[in-house]
Design brief:
Two copies of one chain form a homodimer.
Chain A lengths: L1 H31 L6 H19 L2 H12 L4 H18 L3 H24 L2 H20 L7 H9 L5 H24 L14 H16 L6 E5 L5 E5 L2 E6 L8 H18 L8 H4 L3 H15 L3 H14 L1 H4 L4 H7 L17 H17 L7 H13 L24 H21 L2 H6 L3 H11 L9 H9 L6 H14 L3
Parallel strand pairs in A: 1-3
Antiparallel strand pairs in A: 2-3
Helix pairs in contact in A: 1-2, 1-3, 3-4, 5-6, 8-16, 8-22, 9-10, 9-13, 10-12, 12-18, 13-15, 16-17, 16-18, 18-22
């Protein structure tokens, strides 16, 4: 009986993973190579396949199989796997199909309206549909009949275990310590980074990426490939098939490099989850914050350091002698770490980034607890930016309309970006107790660092939640002070504060 | 009633096309970019999706829907569409599932054995499994209970309407006229083509392809893209999404170009079938011979001509001044048309190619009519090559083991390659009555040629069979003499016979 149920469950997981693979490959193709002309044909058929997958996922017979399995004596891994899937599917099953369909239509429409509003630089175009999306999200969450507050449920969806109480504590510390630090940095002697923004031939950038950076990172073509796209992302087809994408900018020599280091961080997570978890929720269900902790660890805590560039700068200088011949590696590293309040989140630096997130968190919280409304939300947005970062968007395009997330109903997702960075700081602290990170970076033994991450973090996937992994890897619960200490120390030194 | 049945039929076609699209995109990806490490994971899931598609395709309820529809008063297009699908699916349905599964396993095994035998250059390794594949093919075809001879059925599968009788008549003419012609060419003063085989920087070849050849052909990135692969192919995802692939060889400056012109010929066929046929069997069910007629028309009848190169050679010469500065366009065109008996089909030239096919046709026919056995088939192979082409393979690797087709049970497919070339000759004859092909090629108005092909051939897809299209496009039935006249005239002139 138990064996049969297990077999049925595993076959169902395999089936789901087949559709997931197809949809992922279709998605990667669409965002990299696919000719635009075929979009309508492909989209119609992709929607059909997504519907097929949805039917398999929400199959009521499998709900029963899982219920029966949970009543059996099964091993802890399998129990956790079933529970994670149950949670995910339960949230879909409680929503009446018509509500789900109309929500999908609404967000598709909202995306178009957002796009139009952004181009017109006019928030009032977007406001009515944003209001509708929020109302529809509330309706969907109401179906869950949970005793938890609505925004807490949203936060938990993206980062299991997180609540407003915990995020409040986190962001309070961020606000307290970063706002004054950023003010000091802004008033200090500014760092010259103009040489980063000269014209850098894209073909040469690519050649440098393939010859120097990817091999340094150990990103191997037998299990991963890199392609170009408009908005860089990573897709984990399976552990030995990781698709990383990047975008080369002619007027920025580090953008593609650091973005690639970031994406390779996501890639290693997918590559290094224990092989027996491949194709299961233990790999594809990793929380946003945990995934972001690994990409940001590679990007910021490794990729922006002097030792990283002591290994890689000479070849960059050789590739671009004209632009970089008079720039020392120390000057270069200072320039790629400039901290300066700005308007657009995706272009923000490591120091000011968490405040962009803080602002979004406060607004989302207000929207769902009823203290903020969508009306005049552009003004609220601008007030927050002035208060925390001292900058003001000339139009809503660089203001409230900059992010796509809300049009898609993604509320509760933004905070995980900041959480990820904070997780990384604590992981780095623990890693530095075990291995000489700087020396490894300097001497090109990047794989030893990856080994540490695999051993303490990656291999578990989401077999354990973020809190459990944090305790196992660092010996203590999550503590944001490691993050704030790191930023304070780094920027105090950088700006001679 | 009729309306409902039609709706059901069309929805079923859409469903099938969704799986077909997914499998095509997965296949293209596998052959171009996919990291090798993920192959096992992907293959297992791809097989599952193929199984899903198979179940939908062979759905017995749909057999009934089609039967009922054929009894209704439906338009001629729909009737033809249903009949074509019926024929294809009937051939699957008559085979017991176990037989089909064991056949699939056998051919997968045979592929591995063929690969091993080829590397070991030893036909005796391959012989036992080839024998089994032939026996299994016979069993499968026996299920059809057709009164036609078995090899006729195989021929008809790849080129509807073709039989041994028709192919015999065709190949008799080929043998009669080409064997002596090739002998004369072999004895004539040889043409120097050594300059084609110097080192040609691959990066520059790519740059020339993208800057000169693809734009000249009108291959537009809005509906197609080109990528690299090991064995070039074209995949038609839909009319506005055509994937063409190529392979660049450092020591051959025309290989990638002419291979691309060939694949673009397939691509235009897929692109130009009437829009209302997109996603139906009218596009994906086009016969091998007809498809090959279009790729070879572009490659040989256009891409190997002086006017084509009058338009494109100057830029090639500029790209490779060192190698080509002393080579005139006339010398260049003579060199890319050298006719010389050789051992390997895929590397054969336009003149000797049909004899490679003739040999395979005679062997296949013998195997299925019982006059030839697999035992010592390598010797039979060598005898044919000596007799028709005057060459002998040093080992079975360049002999009987060169082609993958038989390991996969593809019998009856080879003849379509020669048929395609012969179809092209007759199409070209008709086209030259309507438009000034040479002047259009010379002046870069390639689109006018494509317009002619669309108007007379492409737009129909397989709404009509090859014979019907031939009559409509050229005003007479297929006549192989156009092909043989063309070769005789071309090579007589080229070699001053």
């Amino acid at each position: 009986m138990k064996e049969e149920l297990l077999k049925e469950f595993d076959e169902w997981v395999l089936k789901l993973s087949a559709y997931q693979m197809a949809l992922s490959l279709i998605g990667v193709d669409k965002q990299t190579l696919a000719p635009q002309g075929g979009a309508a044909y492909r989209d119609e058929r992709t929607a059909y396949l997504a519907g097929e997958m949805f039917s398999i996922e929400t199959d009521l017979h499998m709900v029963e199989v899982r219920r029966q399995l949970l009543a059996e004596d099964i091993d802890a891994d399998k129990r956790r796997e079933i529970e994670l899937m149950d949670k995910e599917i339960e949230h879909i099953l409680v929503v009446p199909k018509e509500m789900f369909v109309s929500y999908t239509k609404l967000t598709a429409e909202a995306y178009e309206v957002w796009h139009r509003a952004k181009n017109a630089e006019d928030y009032t175009i977007f406001e009515p549909v944003l209001k509708k999306v929020i109302e529809a999200s509330k309706q969907m969450y109401a179906c869950r009949n949970s005793s938890a507050s609505m925004y807490d449920q949203m936060l938990d969806d993206y980062e299991p275990g997180m609540t407003m109480e915990k995020y409040d504590a986190f962001f309070d510390r961020v606000r307290e310590r970063l706002v004054p630090l950023i003010r000091k940095v802004t008033e200090a002697q500014q760092i010259d980074d103009s040489f980063l923004k000269q014209p850098y031939d894209v073909q040469k950038q690519k050649e440098y990426m393939n010859r120097v950076i990817l091999p340094y990172l150990g990103f191997d073509s037998s299990w991963g490939y890199q392609n170009e796209t408009e908005h860089p992302f990573t897709d984990i087809i399976c552990e030995n098939d990781i698709r990383v994408t990047t975008k080369y900018l002619e007027n920025n020599v580090v953008s593609a490099i650091l973005s690639t280091v970031h994406e390779v961080g996501h890639g290693y997570y997918g590559h290094d989850v224990a092989p027996e978890y491949d194709g299961t929720i233990f790999n594809y269900g990793i929380s946003s914050g945990m995934h972001e902790s690994q990409s940001r660890l590679l990007e910021n805590y490794l990729g922006r350091t002097l030792p990283f560039w002591e290994a890689n700068y000479p070849a960059l200088q050789e590739t671009f002698p004209e632009q970089l011949k008079d720039v020392t590696v120390e000057q270069f590293v200072r320039a790629i770490n400039v901290g300066k309040p700005s308007l657009v989140r995706t272009e923000a630096d490591e120091l000011t980034y968490p405040l962009h997130i803080l602002i979004r968190y406060e607004i989302e919280k207000g929207l769902f607890t009823g203290t903020i409304s969508t009306e005049n939300l552009d003004r609220t947005w601008d007030e927050y930016y002035e208060k925390y970062l001292g900058v003001k968007a000339p139009t809503a395009r660089q203001g409230i309309l900059q992010d796509v997330h809300w049009s898609g109903g993604s509320f509760g997702y933004f905070p995980t970006y900041a959480l990820g960075s904070a997780f990384s700081a604590q992981f780095m602290k623990a890693m530095r107790c075990d291995i000489d990170v700087d020396e490894l970076l300097r001497s090109g033994r990047f794989s030893v660092i990856i080994d540490w991450l695999r051993e303490h973090i990656h291999r578990y996937g989401c077999r354990y939640n973020a809190d459990e992994i944090m305790r196992m890897a660092t010996g203590e619960p999550f503590n944001p002070d490691y993050y704030l200490d790191y930023l304070e120390e780094k920027y105090t030194k950088l700006y001679h504060l």
